[in-house]
Write a structure and sequence with these properties.
Strand content: 5-15%
Number of domains: 2
Amino acid sequence: MSELHDTLHRVTQRVIENSRDSRRAYLDLMQREADRRPERSQVSCSVLAHAFAGALEDQEALKEGRGPNIGIVTSYNDMLSAHQPYGRYPDRMKIHAREVGATAQVAGGTPAMCDGVTQGEDGMELSLFSRDTIALATGIALSHQMYDAIACLGICDKIVPGLMMGALRFGHLPAIFVPSGPMPSGISNKQKQETRQKYASGEVGRDTLLESELASYHSPGTCTFYGTANSNQMMMEMMGLHVPGSAFIQPGTKLRQALDRAAVHRLAELSGTTTRTLAQVVDEKAIVNAVVGLLATGGSTNHAIHIPAMARAAGIAIDWSDMAELSSAVPLLARVYPNGSGDVNQFHAAGGMGYVIGELCNAGLAHRDILTVWDEGFDAYARAPVWEDEALAWSPARESRDDTMLRPVESPFQPDGGMRLLSGNLGRACFKSSAVDQSRWTIEAPCRVFGDQQSVAAAFAAGELDRDVVVVVRFQGPRANGMPELHSLTPPLGVLQDRGYRVALVTDGRMSGASGKVPAAIHCTPEAFDGGQGGGPLALLRDGDMVTVCARTGTLATTADLDNRTPVPDPLVHWGVGRELFRIMQAQADGAEQGGSAMLAASGL
């Protein structure tokens, strides 16, 4: 094993130093929570009766305190394909718990919305704040204090970060995240992308588009592109919070069921631990490992928001400057659709996370000494799980089986991690250079300014964007409208780019982790919306201003004189689809670089 890379060491030490007071305060709180946690024998009989009344065949074991009790926090619903398999998990997990003298109860459920269903729709404005809602629901579920360990059932975009943020408030307990795996591969991603662009340009109709989409998203399991959901699973591996190798094993297989069983058995073993709790596993090194994994695999840009928020919940401070510096040292080892042609199933078959982790550790580009939920430590995550002789086993993942998808550190797809920080007189923003051809890393053109993505679509349809242009979509930040994803902009902007125009996007909104090919300065902060808290410079831009978006120099700027301009007024707030219920969260939310969270901002974290 190589010594730790200088950049990784330097950034980690800075994160530790910047987090010193907040991390100490968090760990002190967790120690107090552990010390004050009541023994069940000291809890009133009425309380216990309420807690055990619905436990059926586990009631006697709970009453007599025969073994640990695992609290299951589930985000099951059968509208999300990725979460549909969770419907049967609790019953199976209770059986697995009984096998080792433990019990398990569903502590509670959390909401789980699908960004794929709300893309381009009004409901997307609830998406980011669903993360805070999930964290709050997790807190409520665990507040009964009847559990010795936590099983978190979640996969998709805001759900894993929300579960993490809530569970960290109970970090004195051990916890394992239990995925359910990706659906089998459908039609090729190239076919899907071509059909989308043909629809955007009017070459095919809605029926053709729908058939294409159904051939791609077709059965239970996570969508197979490498967006936010699958990036979540990568991060849980990089932080040591899965049973090793769990991320990309398909639902309904013997191997998947064996990994789920192992998670329950391991939680029973960890119950009562004071040395491998969630608070101890999620430390500064684990957070840095999550960033490294994101960069090495070209993961979702949404995690530029989620990682700071999860870190804050553990008392850890990390920002985009830290992430950009790590990106300068971490090579891109994977190309998974939309950054490549193959999906996560093909990524896993090529060597997957076991190969990536082994390569990073051997090069000194990941913290090998992190504490994990597995006794063998992080080395165990450099292996792939297999079902062998009717038993769960692991085999080393020493080589890539497909160098179009996975490459070694010595010959990466590109020498850096492909997530760059842009800054200038228009604010700070993220640019996913790993998804964009280098010939398009610098775009300088007059801008066209919009207040919503529907207006962009209308201008595209009218031919008004058939030129070199920087499309600015403002008032899309957390306080303006909940920071929706703007993934529906990708097909029309992709069409313009294919027509030969120099095109870029600048927005204070989010772009999906599945976005590709079009250069985009996203999550721009401070956001344009004022709301009495001071809006950002995007509110000063006018049509025709020259704007530069450059990933090479890290520039996001305009040549226009903004000092003597008056910002355009904040847009009217929208009602309907429950958006008005989230106004209090919008008003409290902090900036994207801090995590875009109302809950964390209001709690002083």
